[in-house]
Amino acid sequence: MSVAGERVTSAGPLFGEAELRRIAHDALRQTDGDAAEAVIVARTGGLTRFANAAIHQNVASLEATLRVRVARGTRVATQATDRLDPEGVRAVARSASELARLVPENPQFAGLPAPRPIPPAPTAFAERTASASPLDRAKAAKLVCDPARAKKLRAAGFVSTNVQEIAIASTLGTWAYSPETTSEVQIAAIGDAGSAFAHRVALDFDALDVRGAADEAISKAVRAQGPRELAAGEYEVVLEPYCVRDIVGFLGQQLTGLAVEEGRSFVGGRLGQRVTGPVTLVDDPFDPSGLARAFDFEGQPSDRLALIEDGVARAVVYDSGTAHRTGNRNTGHALFPNAFAPASAMHLRLEAGTKTREELIRGVKRGVLVTRFWYTRWVHQLRTIVTGMTRDGTFAIEDGEIAYPVKNFRFTQSYHEALAGVRGIGRDLELLLPADAFGIQAASQRVPALHLASFAFTGVTAH
Amino acid sequence: MTWAHERDLARRALDTARTRGAAYADVRFVRRTTEDSLVKNGRIETVDRGETFGFGVRAIADGGWGFAASQITTAAEVDRVAALAVEIAQASALTKLAEPLLSPVRPVVAEYATPVEVDAFALPFEERIGLLVAAEEALRRQPGLRTTRARYAIQREEKLFLSSEGADIVQTLSECGGGIAAEATGDGELQIRTYPDGLRFQNSGGWECLAAWDLVGNAPRIAQDAVALLTAKSCPQDVRTTVILTGNQLSLQCHESCGHPIELDRVLGSEAAMAGTSFLTTDRLGSFRYGSEHINIRIDSTSPRGLGTFGYDDEGVPASDGWAVKDGVFVGYLMSRETAAALGTTSNGTMRADGWSRLPIIRMTNVSVMPGRAGSLDDLIADTDDGILMDTNRSWSIDDRRLNFQFGTEIAWEIKKGKRGDMIRNPTYTGVTPEFWGSCDAVCSEGEWVMWGTPNCGKGQPGQTAHTGHGAAPARFRNVRVGVVK
User: Fold this and answer.
1) How many angstroms away from the CA of A36 is the closest CA of chain B?
2) Angstrom distance (rounded) from CA A254 to CA A316
3) Confidence label for B25 from pLDDT (cuts 50, 70 and 90)
4) Which of A263, A383, A437 sits opposite B185 (nearest CB)?
């Protein structure tokens, strides 16, 4: 794209590094304060949604946000706009500057972080994804809908392609830029008495395994029909990676300096101590199989960190403000500025084990295979107790075999305590994205299937 | 805004869509202005303003739907986006099984604005932030707190809607909300109290919506509660008892277990992969016993202060009111033009989009549990021999058909022989929707009824956040399963 305000035609990045640098520096130049920072997130995406085996919602959008933070001494204010034309840039810079005069002082403000060198990271941009057309996505959706219908199942889900550029600049000299792409397919194959789910993510649309996802969801849905009721209680479980994503995501929320500061982290005061069974959870911004990005939303280099190493709590992540306030080192994990979660691990990977999915199941005498968790919410953060439902493919395991489908459970379970009973870890890691993938794509995860000794199912539903 | 320039662009988009083959098209221009401030632990944590402006075009072509949106508001971009919406619609037709059919609506030229007493954006900034500073300071006077917060959020959304059928609607919707929160930690416990409802309380209107709650005056009580919860009794484990829910908790119970299952798109399978479906299938309309005779739930986009109050929805259908549940019987859905046509009726105007960049989908407007005749909360407690009073949501979860739910609240109290007794920490309750509502034997009277708000309702792919209203008063439920967290 040449100039903000003109149409997008390129299969490359939306704006490109030079254009975003110009816009960011235009904004910074027009601020009036001691220091200023500009964060730009530009994205375009297409999402083709299907239900009842036909496309029913099909969308595309071009969105860009420029967020200017101005500091006058310890008075700090931010203003955001999606107008990247000269008038919009001028207005947001002036408004943020004016607001910074009015805001009361924050004596704990340490100033904007000084620039630090950012090491190179593997590319996260695939041109084929950027060039995907509505027809490409519709054809992919048809690859799911038709075979589902042939099995008398109703397919629902989506195919999406997204392009995102992130740029951060400051008057202190910070400059960071990353173009990224993702493509994604999610499928629920639904029969009259049971359903199943599959999910794939790829940076390159050509590498998106739509057929594989369709096969997985459809074949599992065929087996999921006519579930029996299994009584609630504690069961040995095998959790598909879609469930493990949820566990890793919730624990990740508590592996931050802010969570420790606020007294709501299960690792607070326990760094160096055993907090789970023998699992290793890392945040790896340089993972070539993930959505690699070497910097955070303050333009600081992101450290590769072992957060939990073989069950022992080792580290939490920081942004500049929390690091300063708590006397710790900034690890470069600031999120897009917001009031409640200033930092997060954005490249979580639960390290792989050695077992195939079938070997994990074979290791269970009597238990439950869970495909997906649904509507999970904190019940007690400090104890990492979460409640939620199983969904779209829950099966009884007997003598190491998938025996029959079962009705869905409600669970109420401490996630880190569940990991204390790790009996097996899958050897294959699945790249997955947080549930809402169309907004700012700040994070990705790579997770395996898990075999856990015990999981607390506290209720049963009717289906 | 005069909208003159945008109206020209919208007409251009409609012309382009028609020229490219659209059988139907509509265009929305939306400008959303926000300010969100948070004071925490004696410091100004964030003062964050934002403005977003753009447009979206929705089209039907070759029997498929398409939607495209952009934040660039030039004529060239309008042409591109309108043509793209049609191209997308034509691609959608690749899997077409049936032609889209829209129920009729009379296209109108109209304007609507939220009634506002005190324009929050026009207040001096010092006055807005001053309220937070004072309220948060009042919390911190209580020893033993780990974290204290005070927040406000204000929003104004201005929008223009034009359709190829001739509608031309301008609306200005204003919202304001906020609250205070106190957290205490110790002995492996983390306890929180908030007022009036998390930090997410919000209403349609101006600054008066927040000012009415007296954050400063209520701060000492909330702060004391948070500390006292650390040493309060644990919730009884896995017992069945009588539960009284305060209005703010009942409002979320209604949102999750009535508001969502009456969304007709869920019922017809449109949300099956994500939000899920519904137990309130079309064969149950008009006959299914959803709750006891005390349960009357209204769908009303005209209620004062409701976050789901507007003049017209994002399909140009006028605001309306009607019943979802009448005397305990399920009688009404939230509908769009297309889903209403599938039922052979007309839309009740519940299509809402999250700004300009998202497709309108069925969302709750104001779905409210109407007041009963049980008097005040004190009257209801006095009328209860044994049970638990639960107040202010802390945790919520429900299955994909909206049957099996589990909620936790911030605080509870024993009720013994008609009196509020000891405080209880970590309270939870669980149940199945129609059984739960069927166990209601009392709803407090109009004097206890408050229009609460849920400004964080997620739905759709791409994800959208809706702001929904839920009026509720305290109510009593019998034989509820309580306590799943030790």
Assistant:
1) 14
2) 8
3) very high
4) A263
| Chain A residues in contact with B484 (beta carbon < 8 A) | 387, 412, 458
For testing the chain B interface, which of A9, A19, A52, A56 should be mutated: the one with the most B CBs within 10 Å?
A: A56
CB atoms within 10 A of CB B442: 20
User: What stretches of A120-274 show up as alpha helix (H) in DSSP?
Assistant: 127-130, 134-150, 210-223, 241-254, 257-261
Question: For residue A4, what pLDDT band results from cuts at 50, 70 and 90?
Answer: very low
CA distances from A303 to A270, A282, B459 (A): 21, 10, 34
Name residues whose C-beta falls within 8 Å of residue A398's C-beta, 6 or more positions apart in sequence: A365, A366
pLDDT of the residue at A438: 41
Task: Tell me what pLDDT residue A5 has.
Answer: 37
Q: How many other CB atoms sit within 10 Å of the CB of residue A430?
A: 18
Residues B248 and B213 sit within 8 Å (Cβ to Cβ): no
> What crossing angle do the helices spanning B215-229 and B125-140 adopt, rounded to 10°?
30
- The reported pTM is 0.96
Q: Which residue of B has its CA nearest to A414?
A: B485
pLDDT at B349 over 70: yes
Contact call for B91 and A135, based on CB within 8 A: yes
> What gap in Å lies between CA B72 and CA B69, rounded to an integer?
9
| Among the listed residues B328, B245, B239, the one whose alpha carbon sits nearest the alpha carbon of residue B288 | B328
Question: At what angle are helices B125-140 and A86-102 packed, to 10 degrees?
Answer: 50
Strand intervals (E) in B309-439: 321-326, 329-330, 351-352, 361-362, 367-369, 386-398, 404-416, 419-425, 428-432
DSSP A367-420: EEEEEEEEEEEEEETTTTEEEEEEEEEEEEEETTEEEEEB--EEEEEEHHHHGG
Mean pLDDT computed over A367-395: 97
Alpha-carbon distance values, A301 to A41, A249, A341 (Å): 18, 22, 19
Write out pLDDT tens, residues B160-195.
Answer: 999 999 999 999 999 999 999 999 999 899 999 999
Predicted local confidence at residue A442, as pLDDT: 87
C-alpha dist (Å) from residue B187 to A264, B159, B415, B466: 12, 51, 27, 38
SS3 of residue A53 by DSSP = coil
| pLDDT tens for each residue of B392-441 | 999 999 999 999 999 999 999 999 999 999 999 999 999 999 999 999 99
Query: B363, B351 in Cβ contact below 8 A?
Result: yes
pLDDT beyond 90 at B464: yes
CA-nearest of B405, B395, B387, B401 to B474 is: B387
ipTM computed for the complex: 0.95
Whole-number mean pLDDT of chain B?
97
CA distance A119 to chain B (A): 30
Measure Cα distances from A56 to A51, A138, A153, B350 in Å: 7, 11, 17, 18
Q: Enumerate helices (H) and strands (E) in chain A, giving the number of each.
A: 10, 19
- Judge whether B431 and B457 are in contact, CB under 8 Å: no
